[in-house]
Automatic annotation (TrEMBL):
GO biological process: cell plate assembly; microtubule-based movement
Entry keyword annotation includes Nucleotide-binding: yes
Polar residues bias (residue ranges): 1-22, 455-466
Compositionally skewed regions (Low complexity) per UniProt: 644-671
Disordered, as annotated region: 1-26, 413-442, 447-466, 627-678, 722-750
A GO term, aspect molecular function: ATP binding
UniProt xrefs under InterPro entries: Kinesin-like_fam, Kinesin_motor_CS, Kinesin_motor_dom, Kinesin_motor_dom_sf, NACK_C, P-loop_NTPase
Sequence similarity: Belongs to the TRAFAC class myosin-kinesin ATPase superfamily. Kinesin family. KIN-7 subfamily.
Name of the protein: Kinesin-like protein
Claim: ATP-binding is one of the keywords in the record: yes
């Protein structure tokens, strides 16, 4: 069935005249549609084919309304141009392709394609169009010297719905990709830069040779694929200094495969399959054109139904300029195919494109700046040392900061832990202090350094809690150290004395002074520091013990002060000796080492050789005695080896030891021997001086520790006395009902106290919303107590003494029974581990059958000690099962449900029986 072709109103043919090559730069326009009718082919002539179409003017084609035309009378079609059989391709190009083709030079994408049935002259036409376009493009390039052009060439064919690179057929099927800016892109399509027109023609020839061509009944060389030759043209002004404006566009020259009827084309097998793909893709093209021609661009346009329409998408209703040359055979035999072509052309005429210029603007300044930046980065990369140094520096700084922060964090953590432990101890101490009258519970935080400098945090020996006994131990240790220091001072003085005497250095006065000091220190030790047993018994400790210890420590104060003074004197004497020795040395042979050492020592105690002298026991070994030639000689030989010959020659004489030197070595001169002894003496004196300095330091340390200890002991004393007062006051309060009445009669009698306390208890129940049954029960208990107190008169139960009245006796008896009852439950309610833990805690003797009773008898025996009360309650609760259902959960009211019926099965628990009986009164 043939669809009649609509008339095309001439008003619809709108072409915008071109101002620059290819026309205006941005505008909406219709696709340029022309029709070219070829002459009858030799075959058609041979078969006497009739010409079915007339071309009355250059825009119109009309069917001849022959008998064969089944749609006679409606065969007039108007297009942008209609070319007759004699029209040259040059004219077709001129009128139907030129403007569009040259648009690519000004940045507008352009597409020219030939559409028509097989053997209608598409390839014939497109070959010519391409040739003219290339020619003119190069002419334009040559005539536009102010711009710089570059042309790239690529070519593809769509054969049986696969895209093939005609410049590289081996690459196989190419993929189509969707690009947001460029639309559909053929992936990995070869693109070759064209150097000149000949190069371009050569490549076109290569593509033609590569294209799928086959023989059909209608065409000896029928194109079996759609061919797209693409010229990508980029141009920019040569003299633009600040800004680069580039036009970039593609010119697509498309030679479609021809639609064919299998019957007419007489295709079978491969050709039939090819024809099927060709027709299918052309049908999609037709549909796209038809839909676009309806003006409904926003509706679905099936571009994706074929690769041809996908690739040509921007040329069909997109931003490109498009020209379609529809080719047709004049023969009557192809009338229907020709009519379909004209219908397609008619629809295509209605399609409007929105042509746009593709301009790339590159600011030269920006480019220059970026180039500089790139150069800088490249230079930086080339010199990695520089960048890595600064990086290393930064990293190091960061590391140091992190280290410092970690130290601070650790310090803060330490402080936090200390504060928490202090808080805990304070809490415990205050709890214990409130109710304990026994000095054995006194705890006190004591912090001092027993072995080292107390100001040294790292080595501070911290004892968070210590008993009085430990304090006494520390006092004894201090005394011991004091004694040791005295001994060491003795030894030092002794050695010094010997040294001075043997060497006769210094004045006679100095030697005498030292001898005197030595005897004094010995006397001090003989009188004040008798050896003591170093065992302190914890149990023996008490406030009085502490006071005794402090008194004793204070009595040593004088000794320590004296020791300090003596050591000070010794040091002064040594300084004198050293000065004398130096003076002597100046005149004679004082060694350079000694001089420098002297200078250093005078500079202050900080540089003293404590490390060498820190162990007092080593001091005698460190000192080199001139009286022990064996060691001296050994040392001296070493020294001699290291000594310069000049010094040896200048050595002064010292006759005192000359004979010894001769005895030790016949080869050693007397002078050398004297020099050795002299050096040893100097060293010894220096060592003694250092040692004495160290002793002084240690005495000062001892003093500090002693003061610290005294402070702690005084604080303990103060606390103990406060607690004693509190305890006394407590006892007084407990007795007030009795004693105070007796004393002045102003205080309330016991019944009033009882009444007052009962009100307080009832108010407490009220405030705590205690179960009213429990209130009632305890109220009755109180009532029972009140009754019995009445029987006792105005006496407090606390003062019942050893001979209580009968009712109280029965209570005591009931309590005893209750304890026995609970003791029996110890085995069943507590595990073996729990029992052992409790025995240990409550100091139950390890042996004996009555351990359970022992334990229970210790419960609830110290009503003023809240810790005792709490722990007793815990044990009893466990024994009677209050804790059984808790499982770590909060206490519930049900735990305290009391039975108001006689405890028939718990008759031994007489305490509750008594209360229950009251309820039945
Ligand atoms: N305008 C023309 N003037 C003279 N000869 C022409 C013209 N157009 C086409 N021919 C000749 O017609 C024959 C078929 O042309 P062509 O191969 O270009 O058709 P086609 O549409 O490309 O066919 P197919 O679709 O099968 O490839 C060729 O021999 C060609 O030389």
């Amino acid at each position: 069935m043939t669809i009649s072709a609509p008339e095309t109103p001439s008003t619809k043919i709108r072409r915008t005249p071109a101002s620059t090559p290819g026309g205006s730069k941005v505008q909406e326009e219709n696709i340029l549609v022309t029709v070219r009718m070829r002459p009858l082919s030799s075959k058609e002539l041979a078969s006497y084919e009739l010409v079915a179409w007339d071309i009355p003017d250059e825009h119109t084609i009309v069917s001849k309304n022959l008998a064969h035309d089944r749609n006679a009378g409606s065969g007039s079609y108007m297009f942008d141009k209609v070319f007759g059989p004699t029209c040259s391709t040059s004219k077709v190009y001129e009128a139907g392709a030129r403007d569009v083709a040259l648009s690519a030079l000004s940045g507008i994408n352009a597409t020219i394609f030939a559409y028509g049935q097989t053997s209608s002259g598409k390839t014939f036409t497109m070959r010519g169009i391409t040739e003219y376009a290339v020619k003119e493009i190069y002419e334009h390039i040559n005539n536009t010297q102010q711009r710089e052009f570059s042309i790239k060439f690529s070519a593809m064919e769509i054969y049986n719905e696969t895209v093939i690179d005609l410049l590289n057929k081996d690459s196989g099927s190419l993929r189509l990709l969707d690009d947001h800016e460029r639309g559909t892109v053929v992936d990995k399509l070869t693109e070759e830069t064209i150097s000149n027109p000949q190069h371009l023609k050569h490549l076109i020839g290569v593509c033609e040779a590569q294209r799928q061509v086959g023989e059909t009944a209608l065409n000896d060389k029928s194109s079996r694929s759609h061919q797209i030759i693409r010229l990508t043209i980029e141009s920019s002004l040569r003299d633009d200094k600040e800004c680069i404006k580039s036009f970039l566009a593609s010119l697509n020259l498309v030679d479609l495969a021809g639609s064919e009827r299998a019957a007419q084309a007489n295709t079978v097998g491969m050709r039939l399959k090819e024809g099927s793909h060709i027709n299918k893709s052309l049908l999609t093209l037709t549909t796209v054109i038809r839909k676009l021609s309806s003006g409904n661009k926003s509706g679905h346009i099936p571009y994706r139904n074929s690769k041809l329409t996908r690739i040509l998408q921007t040329s069909l209703g997109g931003n490109a300029r498009t020209a379609i040359i529809c080719t047709m055979s004049p023969a009557l035999v192809h009338m229907e195919q020709s009519r379909n072509t004209l219908l397609f052309a008619t629809n295509a005429k209605e399609v409007r494109n929105n042509a746009q210029v593709n301009m790339i603007i590159e600011k030269k300044v920006m480019v220059k700046h970026l180039q500089q930046e790139v150069a800088r980065l490249e230079a930086e990369l080339r010199s990695p040392d520089l960048s890595s140094t600064s990086l290393r520096h930064l990293l190091r700084e960061k590391d140091l900061k992190i280290e410092q922060m970690e130290r601070e964090i650790n310090e803060l953590k330490l402080q936090r832990d200390q504060a928490q432990s202090q808080l805990k101890e304070t809490k415990e101490a205050s709890e214990n202090r409130g109710h304990s009258s026994s000095s054995s519970q006194i705890v006190k935080r004591l912090s001092f350094n027993a072995e080292n400098d107390p100001r040294n945090n790292n080595k501070t020996w911290r004892k968070s809690s210590t008993s009085t006994g430990i304090l006494v131990t520390e006092i004894r240790k201090l005394e011991m150290r004091q004694k040791q220091l005295g001994d060491e001072a003795n030894r030092a003085l002794d050695l010094l004395h010997k040294e001075v005497t043997s060497q006769k250095l210094g004045t006679q006065d100095t030697a005498e002074t030292i001898a005197k000091m030595l005897s004094e220190i010995k006397a001090i030790h003989a009188t004040s520091l008798a050896p003591e047993e170093f065992q302190v018994k914890e149990k023996r400790s008490s406030s009085s013990t502490l006071r005794e210890e402090i008194a004793r420590l204070n009595s040593h104060e004088r000794d320590i002060t004296m020791l300090e003074e003596k050591l000070e004197n010794v040091q002064r004497s040594i300084d004198k000796l050293l000065t004398a020795a130096a003076g002597e040395g100046d005149k004679t042979t004082t060694t350079p080492d000694f001089k420098s050492s002297l200078k250093k020592k005078k500079g202050g105690g900080g540089g003293l050789p404590f490390a060498a002298l820190s162990n007092a026991a080593n001091v005698p070994n460190i000192l080199r005695s001139p009286c022990s030639p064996k060691s001296s000689c050994k040392l001296s030989e070493n020294e001699i080896e290291n000594r310069s010959p000049a010094n040896d020659n200048n050595s002064s004489t010292n006759n005192n030891n000359g004979s010894n030197g001769e005895k030790r070595s016949s080869s050693m001169s007397v002078k050398k021997m004297q020099k050795m002894f002299k050096k040893a003496t100097e060293d010894n004196i220096q060592s003694i001086k250092s040692y004495v300095t160290e002793l002084k330091e240690r005495v000062a340390k001892l003093q500090y520790q002693k003061q610290l200890l005294v402070c702690q002991v005084l604080e303990l004393e103060e606390e103990a006395s406060t607690e004693e007062e509190a305890s006394t006051e407590c006892r007084r309060r407990r007795r007030c009902g009795d004693d105070d009445v007796e004393n002045d009669g102003n205080h309330s009698p016991w019944p009033e106290v009882f009444e007052e306390q009962r009100k307080e208890i009832i108010m407490l129940w009220h405030l705590c919303h205690v179960s009213i049954i429990h209130r009632t029960q305890f109220y009755l208990l109180l009532k029972w107590l009140e009754q019995h107190l009445d029987e006792l008169g105005n006496a407090s139960p606390a003062l019942l003494g050893d001979d209580p009245p009968g009712s109280v006796t029965s209570s005591i008896k009931a309590l005893k029974q209750e304890r026995e009852y609970l003791a029996k439950r110890v085995s069943s309610k507590l595990t073996a581990d729990e029992r052992e833990a409790l025995y240990a805690k409550w100091e139950v003797p390890p042996e004996g059958k009555q351990r359970r009773l022992h334990l229970v008898n210790r419960l609830w025996t110290d009503p003023l000690n809240m810790a005792h009360v709490r722990e007793s309650a815990q044990v009893v609760a466990k024994l009677v099962g209050f804790c059984e259902s808790s499982g770590g959960q909060p206490l519930s009211r049900e735990m305290f449900e009391l039975s108001f019926v006689p405890l028939s099965d718990k008759k031994t628990w007489m305490g509750w029986n008594l209360i229950s009986n009251l309820l039945h009164l």
